[in-house]
Specification:
The chain is an alpha/beta fold. The protein contains three helices and 32 strands. It is 19% helix and 40% strand. The chain starts with a helix and ends with a strand.
């Protein structure tokens, strides 16, 4: 019996020891896990603090860079990236790069805090000007503005001494109660903002210059085998590459900038292809882009015609010297559409159910054609809508609607066999319906308005 008791004792003691050891292992493991979690959480908090500090410094660096650029003559803004070191508080600093990208400045501010890097990017334009409070500004030298049909002008308008009158057209009277639902400001002074043709000349010269390189590498040199991703900034510098229409039509490429693709032949794209992150597409010939083409923060230039047909995915800038047509196309802010006409037969057409959120510009390279003997014009069809600015230095046919500001030499429409100059038949300008305030491109001579950020990421 004594042996039996001893055996039981040792069994229970051994079992208790195993239990204690097991509990100790569990406790130690749990403690290690908790310590590991606390360490990871501490690392996360430190990285988060570093991230927020880097972000704050990058933002501060960007806005200080804008202050610096506000004091720099606009003629000195570069097309190739320039670098500026911004001194912040203490020993902290930010590195800002800036360059002209189409009608705006492209800026990136970079900082690093405890091995955490943050890049803050934006486009910058000129802050809102006083003239943007008006619905319409006209050349005061022309005769009276005539409104007819279902035309509506809602907002203050600036005209010549002859003012605005309402009239019947082909037996149909004007349907409104008054010609303008707002103030009519009659003046002999031309209060339209003056376009900066020096800037536009530089910009279009830069477009053309990119075709003149003697040894432009082929786009294939940055296309990796079996990849649809094309990085135009592969070596950390925006490159210029030559491509054929056949290559771009070959596959559903995703092309990222910053960088430039140039062509010398007509291009027609109607398959899934993306141009992203300041990818530039430049051509000496016509460009037709269908509804499967996606342009996000992209720029397209052609010496000839550009057509966007049924495009629902456009955010960027279009430039032509001949013609641009948006047909049933939707654009998002801050889109910029510009015809800088090399002759008197150019045009900019907004057709069908197109919606443009941004700015339309039609300007002549030869300023003597502005308001002179030219057929150049903007044409906005009855079902089209613009949210922003419409600027023509010559003619404007307005049948659709504008929520924002219109600036033109004079209006025009044709009804066989007669041209009606400075008549609006059915068009609408509703200043108060503009969705938002937005900065202007660098297209005007007045520099009283400071540079401001359009967007950031």
């Amino acid at each position: 019996m004594e042996n039996s008791v001893k055996k039981t004792f040792w069994q229970e003691e051994g079992s208790a020891l195993v239990t204690v050891l097991f509990i100790a292992v569990i406790f130690s493991t749990t403690l290690l896990i908790l310590l590991s979690l606390l360490q990871q959480h501490s690392i996360f908090l430190h990285r988060k603090a570093s991230f927020l500090a880097a972000k704050y410094q990058a933002e501060g660096g960007l806005f200080k860079a804008l202050d610096y650029l506000n004091n720099l003559p606009q003629s000195e803004y570069p097309f190739q990236s320039d670098t500026l070191t911004i001194q912040l508080s203490g020993k902290d600093s930010a590195v800002s790069t800036y360059r002209i990208w189409g009608g705006y400045l492209s800026l990136t501010s970079s900082t690093e805090k405890r091995n955490v890097r943050y890049d803050f990017s934006t486009l910058a334009g000129r802050d809102e000007a006083n003239w943007q409070q008006y619905a319409l500004l006209l050349n005061p030298e022309n005769f009276s503005l005539t409104v007819t049909g279902d035309t509506r002008l809602a907002g203050d308008v600036i005209t010549g001494p002859a003012g605005v009158r309402k009239a019947a057209f082909r037996g149909r009277p004007y349907s409104g109660n008054q010609p303008v639902y707002g103030k009519i400001i009659k003046t002999g002074q031309d209060l339209r903002p003056i376009p900066n043709r020096q800037y536009l000349d530089r910009l279009y010269h830069h477009f053309r210059w990119q075709f003149t390189g003697k040894k432009i590498p082929a786009l294939e040199t940055v296309i990796e085998k079996n990849s649809l991703q094309v990085d135009l900034n592969k070596n950390g510098r925006a490159g210029i590459y030559f491509a054929t229409a056949q290559l771009l039509q070959l596959r559903p490429w995703q092309i990222r900038g910053p960088g430039t693709i140039i062509l010398t032949e007509p291009l027609s794209l109607d398959h899934p292809i993306q141009f992203l992150q300041q990818a530039n597409l430049l051509s000496r010939a016509s460009i037709l882009l269908g509804n499967a083409v996606e342009l996000r923060k992209a720029l397209v230039y052609s010496e000839q015609e550009i057509v966007l047909n049924n495009s629902q995915q456009f955010n960027g800038q279009l430039f032509s010297e001949t013609a641009i047509t948006l047909d049933n196309t939707q654009t998002s802010s801050p889109s910029l559409v510009t015809v800088y006409a090399k002759n008197g037969n150019a045009n900019l057409k907004i057709k069908n159910h197109s919606r443009v959120d941004g700015s339309l510009f039609f300007l002549h390279q030869d300023s003597s054609l502005a308001g002179g003997y030219s057929n150049g014009k903007i044409y906005i069809e009855s079902t089209a809508h613009i949210d922003g600015l419409v600027y023509s230095d010559h003619l404007l046919t307005l049948e659709g609607s504008v929520a924002g500001t219109v600036i033109t030499d004079r209006f025009h429409f044709y009804y066989s066999p007669t041209d009606y100059f400075n008549w609006i038949n059915g068009g609408k300008i509703i200043r108060a319906e503009r969705k938002r305030n937005f900065p202007m491109p660098l297209f005007f001579k007045q520099k009283t308005n400071k540079l401001v950020a359009l967007n950031h990421e």
